Amino acid sequence: MCGLNAIYAYHPSAPPVDRSELLRVRDRMRARGPDGAGEWFSADGRVGLGHRRLAIIDTTADGAQPMLSADGRFVISFNGEIYNYRALRADLEASGVHCQTGSDTEVLLQLLARDGERALLQLRGMFALALWDNQRRCLLLARDPFGIKPLYYADQNGTLRCASQVKALLAGVVDSAPEPAGQVGFMLWGSVPEPWTMHRGIRAVPAGHWLKIDQHGAATAVAYADIGRILSAAARAPSPLDRASAIDCVAAAIADSVRAHQIADVPVGAFLSAGIDSGMIADLVATPGQRPYTLTLGFEEYVGTHNDEVPLAEALARTLDAWHSTLIVRRQDFEDEREKLLAAMDQPSIDGVNTWFIARAAATMNLKAVLSGLGGDEMFASYPSFRQLPRLVRYGRPFRALPVLGRLLRRSAPLLSGFTSPKFAGLLEYSANLGSAYLLRRCLHTPWELPALLGPELAIEGLSRLQTLPALGRTMADNGSERLQVSALEMSWYQRNQLLRDTDWAGMAHSLEIRVPFVDLPLLGTCAPIFAAHPDIGKAELAAVAAPRMSHQGLGRSKSGFSIPVRSWLQPAHAGKAGRGLRDWARFVYQRYPGSGE
Length: 598
Fold this sequence. Notes:
Elements: E1 2-9, H1 19-27, E2 36-41, E3 47-53, E4 67-68, E5 74-82, H2 85-94, H3 104-115, E6 125-133, E7 138-143, E8 152-156, E9 159-163, H4 166-169, H5 180-189, E10 203-204, E11 209-214, E12 217-218, E13 222-223, H6 227-236, H7 243-260, E14 268-271, H8 276-285, E15 293-299, H9 310-319, E16 323-329, H10 331-344, H11 353-364, E17 369-371, H12 376-380, H13 385-400, H14 403-411, H15 413-416, H16 422-425, H17 434-442, H18 450-454, H19 456-466, H20 468-475, H21 482-508, E18 513-515, H22 521-533, H23 539-546, H24 552-556, H25 566-569, H26 582-592
Parallel strand pairs: 14-15, 14-17, 15-16, 17-18
Antiparallel strand pairs: 1-3, 1-9, 2-3, 4-5, 5-6, 6-7, 7-11, 8-9, 8-10, 11-12, 11-13
Helix pairs in contact: 2-3, 5-19, 6-21, 6-22, 7-22, 7-23, 8-23, 11-21, 13-17, 13-21, 17-20, 17-21
C-alpha cells in the first residue's frame, strides 16, 4: 500500500518535468508511505514517476519503487496489493520469465510487460498503477474493478499529471477552479461521484478502467471490468446449484477470499464490530495456531444502548482468543482531532470519522494492515435498500398508469417539501424504477433543494453535467434480478464513492492498509449467479456455515455497524446551536474544503 504520482510532458511545446513539483506532490502523500520514497526520471526529462512506500509484501529494499524492468523498457509506480501474486509469479516463471525479488510489484510489472492491459483481469487485489513504456512513449494508468484504490489525473497544456490523492495534485500545477458537477454531486450524495472531483482540472480514473497517454495526449478511458455488467451477466445465467449446495459454495468462497487477503509479510489485524460481516472475518482469521489481532470502536454516548458495539464484539474476541483492543471515543476526542481529520479528508465526505478513529487505534498497535467487513452489505443484500427500493417502485406503479395525474403529482414535489420531508415529497417523482428510487433513498439533499443551497446557476450546471439518472440507469443495464440490480447500485455508487474512498483516506492518514475481503472479484463471480438463482439467501445463514463460532446473539443482532453519534457531536463548531446531523456536517465540510467556491 503506497502513494504514487507521475508527470508526463507529452506535447513538444510543454516544458520538461519539474523535479521539485514531482517531489512536492509525492511528499504530500507521506502518510501513505512512511517506509520509503522513490523517484525516476526519463533521460530526456519528459517523464517522471514518484512513489511513497508502506512496506507490507517483501519489506526489503528489493520491493522499492518506482521499479524498472530488467531491460529498462518499463517503469512502474504502484499502489495496492496483488493477493494472487505467487500464483502469477509461478505462471510467469513457467513461461520463461525470471523474477528477481519476492515482491508483488515485480510480478505486476512483468505481467504487464508480457500481457499488456490483458494482465489487469488476472489480478486479484486492489490497485492503482502508472506504467511507463519507454519504447512506445506511452503512460498507462489503471484502477482495480471496484475502485478500492484511488487514482486522479489532470491533463492541461500538454502535460499529464496523476497522483493517488486530489490534495496531492493540488500541490502541483493544476487547474483548481471549482467544478460544478463535483460540488453539486457532494451536496446531492454526501460524497463526490466519480469521475468528478471538486476541481475542474482534476478527474478520477474510473474504477475498472485503464487510460493511455501518448505523444498525442490522453485517449478515452477503456473499461475492462464493469461491476454492473458483471452482475447483469450473472442475472442472465443463474447458478444451477440447489440451495444447500449454493450456501456451501458461497461460504467456501468467503473463506477463500479471507485467506487471500491475509497475504503479507507483516501482521494483519481485523476490525471487529458487533455485526455479522466483521464477525465472519474474525472467525475465519482465527485458525488453529493463529491468534488474531482485533479492534473494536465504541462511543461514550452509546454505552448501555443498542448501538454499543463493544459488549458483543468483546465476547466474540474472547471466544476466538484474539489479541483484542477496544477504543472508546468521546466528543472531546472528535473536537481535538477535527482539524487533522479535515486536512486528511481527500475529497469532502459526510462519513469516514469512524474509520479515522479505528485506524488511529490500529496504528497505536503498530499494525500496518487490517481486514474490514466493508462490502458485506452490498454483496449479501443486507441494507434496507434491498427491501425498500422494490417496494417503492411497486407503490408508484398506479400513478404511472395515470400519466397526467402522475405528472402533476411528481411536479408538485418542491411544493410538497414545504409541508413534509423533501424525500417523502419525492416519492412519486422518484418511484419510476430502481435507479431513481435509489437516488431518493441515498441522496443527502434532493435535487430541488440544491438551488437554495448552492445558487440556481451552480445547481443547474452541476446537475446537467452529472446526468445522474441516466448514469444510474446504465449501472443496472440488462439486469433482470432485483437483488443484483440493487447490488450493482450500492457497489457502484455508495460503496465506491463513499465507503471505499473514505476507508482509503482515513486509513492512509495513519499509514494503515485496510483490506476488504468482501470487495473481491472472484468472490463476486461465485456469488452473483448464486444470488440470481436464490435471491432469498441471507447473510445470517451464510455466516452460520462460514463462521460457526459466531454467537447466536451476534447473528441475530440487527445491523448497526461502526455507527457514530452524529446528532450529538458531528456539528459545525461555530454554529453555537444544536446540530441537525449529517446535513449540518456536510455544510461545514463543504465550506472548509479547498475549491468549494465559498
